[in-house]
Specification:
Number of strands: 0
Shape: globular
Helix content: over 70%
Length: 295
């Protein structure tokens, strides 16, 4: 009987394994075609000079003042939008989940966040120009109704802070979507136990709640940084070439060989891949550790 049971179960297990791989196959093919192969091509092109020989000059060219400045302003914009987006998103998520707001409001905000986190590119740039441009609706209302001219005060939508504010439109919703499960993982028994022991709500969040959320917060922060660092459509549609960030510089290289060196353009792309890849690895590592607290 044991032999017969083993003989009948083995094929079923093998068949189940084959179906599992069949289900994952589209993702594997997609990743190979649109992620792995292009990345390998860029890495290879970054080590080739104009004559087709091996060179390290392309990576040395990343030290030119124009490219260094582009990387620096990209890092600053990505960091600013990630930090502000993470803090504002965390505050909204805490108010929705742990606060005493109506339950229906959470469903509405989460639905909006799912849409807004993917709303970018030309439509988003046009929306902000129509709202906060020099003749935008909010700009005109502030100027003629309240007597506040934000552009005379120094604000400019086509600038560092203008692009940062635009990025917040999809950074904040993304933060809400990612941090919400971590906040849901905070057990009510913990706050009740802290209250029984005489702890105030502030003490609970300082010594229990925020330390538990801290790994998830840091992980999401790194993901928001990578999300902003690789954004191109919104920045290009909003600022054109007036703001020298890495994606726009790379886009100019792809369109018209502005750098007059395809290998240097490939090295520029490899630098972006390394920075965004590192940020995503940080997110994965920290998120894996954060899940231990939420089980």
């Amino acid at each position: 009987m044991t032999t017969l049971d083993t003989g009948t179960k083995a094929p079923a297990k093998k068949r189940a394994l084959s179906f599992e791989w069949l289900g994952v196959a589209p993702f594997i093919v997609f990743a190979i075609m649109f992620l792995i192969l292009p990345t390998l091509y860029l890495v290879g092109a970054a080590f080739v000079d104009e004559k087709g020989g091996f060179t390290l000059a392309n990576f040395a060219g990343l030290g030119t003042p124009q490219i260094v400045a582009a990387y620096w302003i990209s890092i600053r914009i990505s960091g600013a939008s990630a930090i502000l987006g993470a803090l504002i998103g965390l505050a909204i998520a805490l108010a929705l989940i742990r606060g005493k707001l109506p339950l229906g409001l959470r469903a509405a905000v989460m639905t909006f966040s799912g849409v807004a986190s993917n709303f970018a590119g030309v439509p988003l740039a046009f929306a902000f120009i129509s709202t906060l441009g020099r003749l935008g609706l909010a700009t005109v209302i502030l100027k003629f109704v309240f007597g506040i001219d934000i552009y005379k005060a120094g604000f400019n939508l086509l600038s560092f802070w203008g692009l940062t504010i635009t990025y917040l439109y999809f950074q904040i919703p993304l933060m809400i979507l990612i941090i919400a499960p971590a906040i849901d993982g905070l057990k009510k028994e913990w706050s009740e136990a802290a209250s029984t022991l005489g702890a105030t709500p502030w003490q609970f969040w300082r010594y229990v709640g925020l330390p538990i959320l801290w790994p998830s917060f840091l992980g999401t922060l790194s993901l928001l940084f990578a999300n902003a660092f690789g954004a191109i459509a919104t920045a290009y549609a909003l600022t054109g070439s007036s703001l020298n960030i890495v994606p726009i510089l790379l886009y100019a290289q792809i369109r018209g060989d502005a750098l007059q060196n395809p290998g240097l353009g490939a090295a520029l792309a490899v630098g972006m891949i390394l920075i965004t890849g590192f940020a995503n690895v940080v997110y994965l590592v920290i998120s894996a550790r954060a899940e231990r607290w939420l089980k």
